# Entry
Amino acid sequence: MEYRIGVGYDIHRLVEGRKLFLGGVEIPYIKGLLGHSDGDVLLHALCDAFLGALGEGDIGERFPDTDPQYEGISSGKLVKNVCALLKEKGFNINNIDSVIVAQEPNFSPFKKSIRQAVARSLEIQEDRVNIKAKTNEGLDSIGQKEAIAVYVVVTINK
Ligand code: MG
# Structure
């Protein structure tokens, strides 16, 4: 059995006038994440983790935002594309662990629904996906509620 590990990180700015999406789930909050289409920072970090495990570079290389076909592409489509590559290379998803770092909103009530949504979109069992949520103890830009960051680690095998 061949096992591989990938790590992903992303951070997006919180701004007014946008909806907040994490892992494909809409979270009620007064601000949302700036970025192409939905700005789903968790799905972006997840894509980077898979690409890392596959030895396929990063999200910016694979989906350049200067290329019109990827301009404003939804994060769900990026995940589907990366999953197709993973299957094509003969790999299965073993597990995913993640940390959402956000001062606000409180993600604890949404961890379960985010977990379910991520598992569903990847067509894997829920117990292979883990979502953790932490604040930044009021420190730096995240602590000042200006941004949300996500760390993801994945293991894949074939
Ligand atoms: Mg991003």
